[in-house]
Amino acid sequence: MNRKNVLIAVGRKEYSKILRTHISNHPDHFHVAEQEVLHQRYLHEVVDLEKPDILIVHDYYLESEATDKKEREEEWLTFLKRIRVEYDDSIRVVFLCERPKGDPFLSYLVNINVLDIFNTRSIDLVEMIDQLKDKPRFSRVSKFVIKNQKINYDSPEEDEIETSDDSLDEIEDIIEEVENQTEKKEKKVKKEKKEKKSKPDRESEDKILTAITQIDEEELFIDVPVKETVVVKERLVGAVFVGVVGVESNTGSTHTSLLLANFLNNRGLRVAVIEANQTEHLFQIEYAYEGGRGYVSIQDKFSIKGIDHYKSIKELNIPELIHQYDFIILDIGEMGKTDYFDEFFRSHIKIVTAHGSEWKRNELITFLNSLKQHEQENWTLAIPFVDQVTLSDIEKDTELKAFSIPTQSDPYEQSNEITNVFEEMLTSYLPSKKVENKPISLLVGGGISAVVVSLLVIVAITFFK
User: Which residue from 11, 405, 439, 459 lies 20 to 30 Å from 90 (Cα-Cα)?
Assistant: First the structure.
């Protein structure tokens, strides 16, 4: 049997290790190249060196020098068309990403003959490997095609491409560039192979930043479908990170984080709240929860109603936590009072808390303008107890989706209003509702009744931070 040579270019060593292990378990079908790619700048050169039959890439995790989404997409299109010119269809591209089915970019990938697209957070490795054993099939990706929709990319190779066109369009510029650079490229590849130290030192990244970008990479869990014959499926999954920041002090980032944690917990999901700022609000909450009276804790973590609270991000082993939770909420707080504000940009879900009063509106606008170099279209605004008119004004001024957070002094109590808000806010991230089945020991801690706990927590939080 003719084995296929596989090159992994997903950009994260932990992710690569999982893929390598599972693909290598099928030695009759695949050989995984020792070389792997950690940055977009090396991708084309390593492809030329390894000449893989199958190239596995990740849309987000493969690091790039592109500064925004559009530039990143143009970079991918240029690369993919270039290897089509050089190798025709001899290289099978497997594109891993987290994009909705209706994303025009996925439609265009199909148009340039990328027929293996995995666009969900959870990847079934068994099904993926079986798919790679089979030939590429258009039927698997036809769902991504958007007929008669035009996609505009400002690249040297094209002005406007229509997804219904099956051709590669006019790409003479790419061909000419490839022919002119072939000799230089071959010499550079050999040099890069010898000088592996020239690659970015991924180990030097901050541990929390590294951990968040490893989401969806590290955890393998066993999902056993209910069938007469039990089938064990391995999936590549990870916790969803939620970053909660405040435009200024006292906007409610901690309160919102706890409300959200309680909402997720009530759906049967495993949740952790991590204080990623210097306010020490979780210390105060634990103190009240334990009854005060000189209580001193030496633990880094405490639990209320089954929600784990980590009082400081500083000493945490974040990669280890990814295995333990479905959602990890980072209470990042005000920009000037945290060393971890950059983790907001790495989070899957980005929530900005702000005051709703009109005379405070300028603070929100200033905050957003100060971060305009970052893509903001997926940011969500959480505004405490404002009416619909105010909410509409805020959405008009910011062009962002905004939600009014109802008044609720105790964040650990469930309410229909809060449930409705978060169900709408997180609709694309929520699994089907789980049946709650928690032991009593998680609902009542340390012998203190739930009523007393609620009253103490209200005092500690003092409504908003």
Answer: 11
H/E element, 89: none
CATH code of 239-461, in short, is 3.40.50.300
What are the tokens at 260?
């959200």
Cβ neighbours of 275 (radius 10 Å) = 26
| CB-side neighbour CA atoms (13 Å) of 441 | 0
204: which 2 tokens? 């030097």
Euclidean distance between CA atoms 182 and 190, whole angstroms: 13
Extended beta strands in 26-102, E state:
30-32, 54-58, 92-96
Beta bridge partner(s), residue 57: 9, 95
Running DSSP on this structure, what letter comes out for residue 196?
G
Is 248 exposed, middle or buried (CB count within 10 Å of its CB: 0-12, 13-18, 19+)?
A: middle
CATH numeric code, 4-206: 3.40.50.2300
Q: Which two tokens stand for residue 435?
A: 């049946």
Q: Parallel, antiparallel, or unpaired for β 307-310 and 271-275?
A: parallel
Q: How far is CA 123 from each of CA 92, 205, 216, rounded to the nearest angstrom?
A: 18, 26, 9
The residues facing 234 across adjacent strands are 222
Question: Same CATH topology for 4-206 and 239-461?
Answer: yes
What backbone torsions phi and psi does residue 405 show, to the nearest 5 degrees? -90, 115
Where along the chain do its domains lie? 4-206, 239-461
Q: Give the tokens for residue 83.
A: 């290897």
191 sits in which H/E element: helix 172-194
pTM: 0.50
Q: Which two tokens stand for residue 57?
A: 């890439």
Q: What is the pLDDT along the chain (465 residues), one digit of tens a residue?
A: 689 999 999 988 778 888 998 999 999 999 999 988 888 988 999 999 999 999 999 998 888 888 788 889 999 999 999 999 999 889 999 999 988 888 899 999 999 999 999 988 778 888 999 999 999 999 999 999 987 655 555 443 443 434 444 434 444 454 455 445 545 555 555 555 445 444 444 444 454 554 544 444 434 443 433 333 333 334 445 689 999 999 998 899 999 999 999 999 999 999 999 999 988 888 888 878 776 655 566 678 899 999 999 988 887 877 778 878 999 999 999 988 898 998 999 899 999 999 988 888 999 999 999 999 998 989 999 999 899 999 999 999 999 999 999 988 899 998 999 999 999 999 888 876 544 444 433 333 343 334 334 433 443 443 334
Length of the chain: 465
> What DSSP assignment string belongs to 353-382?
E---SGGGHHHHHHHHHHTTTS--TTEEEE
Two structure tokens written together for 329: 């909420």
